[in-house]
Amino acid sequence: MADYKEIVNAYKDLPGGLIESYHALQREYSYIPEDAVVYAAQVFDIPKAKAYGVATFYSYLKVGQRGKNVIRICESAP
Amino acid sequence: MELVKMKINGKEVEVPAGSTVLQAAELVGIDIPRLCYDPDLSPLGACRLCVVEVKGNRLLPASCVTPVFEGMEVETESPDVVEARKTILELLVANHPLDCLTCDKLGACKLADYAYKYGVKESSFTGEKHSYAIDDSNPFILRDLNKCILCGACVRACEEMTGKDNLSYLNRGFNRKATTAGDVPYIESDCVFCGQCVAVCPTGALTEKTMSGQARRWEIERVQTTCPFCGTGCNFDLAINKGKVIGVLSNPNAPVNGRSLCVKGRFGWDYIYSDKRLKTPLIKRNGKFEEASWDEAYDLIAQKFNENKAKNGPDSFAALSSARCTNEESYLVQRFTRAYLGTNNVDHCARVCHAPSVAGLANSFGSGAMTNILSEVNNEAELLFLIGINPTEAYPVLGYKMRQAHRHGCKLVVCDPRRTELAAESDIWLQQKHGTDIPLLNGLMHIIIKEGLEDKKFIAERTENYEEMKALAAEYTPERVSELTGVSVEDLYRVARLYATTDKAMIFYSLGITEHICGTRNVMSIANLAMLTGHIGRPGVGVNPVRGQNNVQGACDMGALPNVYSGYQSVTDKAAREKHEKAWGATLPDKVGLKIPEMFEAAYEGKVKAMYILGENPVLTDSNANHIKKALENLDFLVVQELFLTETAEFADVVLPSSSFAETNGTFTNTERRPQRVRQAIEPLPGKFGWQIICEMSSRMGYPMSFNHPGEIWAEMASLSPSMAGISYERMEKESVHWPCPTSDHPGTPILHIGKFTRGLGGFQPNDHIPPGEMPDADYPILLCTGRIMQHYNVTTQYSAGINSVWDKEMTEVHPQEAKKLGLVTGSRMRVTSRRGSIVTNVWVTDKVQPGVIWMAHHHSETPTNEVTSHHVCDIAGTYEYKVCAVKIEKVQEVNQ
Hints:
The complex is a heterodimer. Chain A is built from four helices and no strands. By secondary structure, chain A is mostly helical. Chain A is globular. The model of chain A has no long low-confidence stretch (mean pLDDT 92). Chain B is α/β, with parallel strands linked by helices. Chain B has four domains: 3-77, Ubiquitin-like (UB roll); 284-353 and 551-734, Rossmann fold; 355-545, Dimethylsulfoxide Reductase, domain 2 (3-Layer(aba) Sandwich), CATH 3.40.228; 782-892, Beta Barrel (Barwin-like endoglucanases), CATH 2.40.40. Chain B contains 30 helices and 35 strands. Chain B has a seven-stranded mixed β-sheet, sandwiched between helices. In chain B, strands 30-34-31-33-32-35 form a six-stranded mixed beta barrel. In chain B, helix 14 (437-450) packs across helix 16 and helix 14 packs antiparallel against helix 17 (478-485).
């Protein structure tokens, strides 16, 4: 698997690159490793707590390990 | 100011344009309920409780973020508004424990207050409730997020007051919480425990742990006082219940700090109740301390001090006052020392910190104190130039202010060999080698002169000796300076240009400048730089030494120095002496007394035979401590007046217990020359006030000093000191002024040297590089630098149960390079040995320090850092060179306890 640092670095100069990097991390790992959140905070020069805030805000993103295949169930009526 | 006419609740009002509706209403005495709004924080407009009805507006806007406009008509309690507020409150209490019966915040809880106001008993909304575990991980703050209403005040306070950015929102929807990165307990996060989050929390989510279960809020009596730790001069309220301090609460009217405090100020107060507090006098008999009555103690002191005076003469006595005691206590100590014991041998610990500032700035400008004031950091400065100062640790609230200034666009330059927090955050960090401040400053001046950026008019009109300065600076070419300091030529140019071309550039420095063999010359070099560029005598500029202890400015002002009476009147000045002789009814010595290092040298040699020490602990805090111990052992008679049986008190023949800041009235003068009241909150634990003990002791010796209240002591001092004559206790109740303040109608002097220096012309004092007295060599290859950490103060915090339960040991910073070489990891034990002593410490591996350097604090008696520090002193001010000495380090093979 690719190094999370490389993945985050790739979005360093992109405006709003933080979320893009989270997407890329999730594509690679199926989740966002905690270390990657801390690293992203450094790279994008934002507080660690904020980096966590963004990473946990979107239900699609998952911080911390989970399985490779994710089953999603829609709870709302069609 | 442009005014806008509008109607609030049918009443015509005029309010400043740009106000919000909430502010406008407040101005005319109408209180609009609010939860997320806080005057000290950026507006959020999230809680919606402050909604109002605006005529012509279909929706109910949040008044905290809605600006006023001409002709606006607002209703703050209309039926629709009340209905909306009720719904909001019902939604909030739907997911709230409603355990108000046992909640510590009730009485100061806004949620409860508004629920009461709008009759919200329970919620019609039902659903899942949070059941978060309570964060009880630390000794200071209880965090119960079940009571959190997500107003975000804590998040904003952490960011906008302290700037630690430790909190943010995590998750969303029902699971949203305001918490740390990774939702870890506070103790595992980057929290600095300043408690600003607690101060702004409107509910019981964040509370002071020490106050838990101690009192309902309405039972608490609040006594505003001044913090006993660093020299920033923060004010806060001591929370008192049934005659006992139970906590510290922010006071929004605190002139210097508002509601901001640091961990020491907010949570370090509990040292006053340490079971190690002394409550009765102790007399040493057969090498052991025995409890004694006040009379026995006073009688013995009177007998011994009188015998010594008769037998060995006045100069065989020496006294130390303290930068931690009140002004009034310091004044009394120097008075009885001079007037009764007949010697000017009186000094205090400014000698080991800022004596070079007093001497250096007096030389350059004529006055040895901060030229400007702290509020200018945020209101005026465009550039903060920090050299040898670590504000976020040593003066945390000032550090937080500097950080906020920087975040709001003020440039920040930090010169420090060590990567301090602000160095890491700065625009430019000059990491000079230890002990190379003079070449660095000369090098900056070289560039400024070379590029014609000096202030020619200022130099011509207001200074003298410039040609000599110019000639010396010419020798400090950027290349040479770069070689000496390790700072790149490019950075030297950047900083020189930035400082010279910024109109409002303030210099702040501290012990990184003064605690060197060339401390006074370092200070004068800073003054040279400021004069060269005309950065003196107006708002937002100046040379600002930041004082490290609560009353180090005051103890100097009071004349607890061997060369001056209060208000810096020289003991060699006949008129000043005669004035004091008349006031004190005594013949006064005209010879300048001994400085601290000279006192201990004289004691070591047997020339000083008796000493009185008030609230100082030189055994732990003075350099080359083994030498100090030998000197103390050599004394015939030593009296120590203290809160605790300190390392120094152990050497005493008589120990007098004293009163802490919470137990006495008095004043502390902060670093910006601002005397502030210290107010008695509880009865003195030893039964007597510190000032009273000094008076009684002196009276017993045969020199009566009788005062009924510290206000009378201040009044006597002020009557003798022209620079403080206009300040009285009555005036301090009403306003807070900076000395010089010669008359009661004088507004005080926030900025010194406007139009003219105190000494007339500002004097350039060119100085060549003087290397430290001891540098690493083959035998002692490592450089040791020392300082203070945020959680501890020089003394007293070690007796705080809260602080000491978390930070209980020295953690010496070691660069990874040395760590690797010696096989050290964080937590390893390490021996540090110099030519003067050898101690064992704990290792913290970090690249904050340069390779080849270790950094230690001096707070813990188990690791008496000053047994190894340098014996070299500043040749002018007598200050020890704490910042540089040579040591060797070795790993200690033992299990870390």
